[in-house]
Every structure is written in C-alpha cells, then in structure tokens.
Amino acid sequence: MKFLRRYLDGGKSWTVYDRGLQGAADITALAVDPVHPKNVYAGSLNSLFKSTDAGRTWQAIRRGLPRLFTINAVAIDPERPATVYVGTYRGESGPGAFRSSNGGRSWLPIGGGLPTKSDVSAIVFDPQHTRLLYAGTSEGVFRSSDGGKHWTGLNVGLTASPVAALAIAAQRPTMVYAGTHSFEAGGVFKSANGGRSWQPSSKGLEDLRVNALAVSPDGRLLYVGTDDGFYRATAGG
After folding, report:
1. What beta strand segments (E) does 4-45 contain?
2. Of 37, 46, 85, 167, which one is least surrounded by beta carbons within 10 A?
3. What 3-state class would DSSP assign to 221?
4. Coil, helix or strand at residue 198
C-alpha cells in the first residue's frame, strides 16, 4: 500500500489520507505525538514523512537521512516530543538509527555503542523513565539510560536474532519482551530485569518469526504478530 487510511468511528470505516505521500513506497512505521496528537510520523520503504494536521497532508522530512533506506521504526520521546528516533534498514551501508531534536526538521546518526552497520527494527521507551530506551537490532537488544547518547548490548540468554519487535509492560517496566526474526530459533524472549538477561517465552509459537508485539494496558496480556498469524498469551508467563 502506498497510502494511509484514518478512521473516526472506532474502525468501522476508513478514509485515505495520502496528500503529500506521492512517490512513497509502502508505509512501514507510524507514530503519533503523545503531547500534540495532530503531529504524526510515517516511515516508508524509501522515505520519512510528517503530518501536522492529523494525517490530512504530509511532507517529507529527510534532512540528514541517507538517500537509500527503509524506516523500520519511529519512536517519540513521551516527555520531549520534539525528540524523535527512527530505526532503519541499512544493511552494510551505514548507521541504522537516527535522532532528531527538532521535530524531524533535521537528523543525526546515533552512535555511542549502538552498532553502526546494524539494522534497527524497533525502538521503545520505558514508560516510567523516558531517558531509558531500548533498540531491537540485527545484533540483538541494546539499551540507553541517557536518552540515546550511549548504548549497551543486553543479550545474555537471547539466543536468536535479529530482534524485530520490542514491548514493555507499562505497570512493570522492567518486564521487556523481544520478538525475533530467526527461522532456526526465533519466537519471543522475555526479561524480568530490564534486559540484563533473557529467557525463551515461545510455547505455542513453534519458533515463528515475530513481526510485532504489544502488551495490554493492564499488563496482563501479550499480543504477538507473526508470519503465521496472531497469537495471545498471558504476559509474564
């Protein structure tokens, strides 16, 4: 699909909103500003866009981003919404993550321990400590405790990669889930200590490639999107 749809009736019907998205390849990532909800970011196979009117119109925001890249993830700082992170598919051609401190007007590559030639497929914030964030990469999970300036690999017990999805339990932010994209030993891994160690949590998934993860607001359920469909499990189990 080369366009976005929006609904106003709880999802019963949808309307195309693609003004300014001409030339965009498939939309691959979305994020809504939690403070100014009319600001929406959309990543695609070949660009990054921003809307300031709830998706009615879009503008490309590529200053500082490489020409050939795919946006895998967009994450907005919940307390500082002008700070935005994007994870990209870059292969061996350069940095995999970028940060903007001005609402997307310009971008700088992220270093400080994050692999410079690794794809970044997921970026999530600790909901209670927003200077703490996690990145899922083709080399595993990395964590930053200073707003993305410095990163540390956290892969003890994480026996599969790449990590394609991450989710955090809002009521218990030290509980982190990682979805992997490996055909040989994929599935879901969980950490009860903020990523310092991991253990498999894939019973019933049969080593499927995991594309998306979400934890229910009450923290009781974990939802998993895979190549073979949708799954649900008790979070923490």
Report:
1. 4-6, 15-17, 27-32, 40-44
2. 37
3. strand
4. coil
Per the structure block, which two tokens stand in for 14?
A: 């949808």
Tell the burial category of 124 from Cβ atoms under 10 Å away from its Cβ (0-12, 13-18, 19+). Answer: buried
> Which is nearest to 202 in space by CA: 177, 172, 175, 171?
177
Residue boundaries of the structural domains of the chain: 4-153, 160-187+196-237
CA 179 to centroid of chain Cα atoms: 11
Check: CB of residue 44 under 8 Å from CB of residue 71: yes
C-alpha to C-alpha distance for 137 and 120, rounded to whole angstroms: 4
Structure token pair of residue 3: 């366009």
Query: If we measure between CA atoms, which residue out of 190, 65, 169 comes closest to residue 125?
Result: 169
Question: Lowest-pLDDT range, 20-24, 97-101, 127-131?
Answer: 20-24
From the number of C-beta atoms within 10 Å of its C-beta (0-12, 13-18, 19+), residue 153 rates as middle
pLDDT of residue 22: 75
What does the pLDDT look like over 222-231, one tens digit per residue? 999 998 899 9
Inter-residue contact 90 to 46 (CB < 8 Å): no
Digit-coded pLDDT (tens) for 201-224: 888 887 788 999 999 988 889 999
CATH number of 4-153: 2.130.10.10
Q: Which two tokens stand for residue 76?
A: 């907005």
pTM of the model as a whole? 0.90
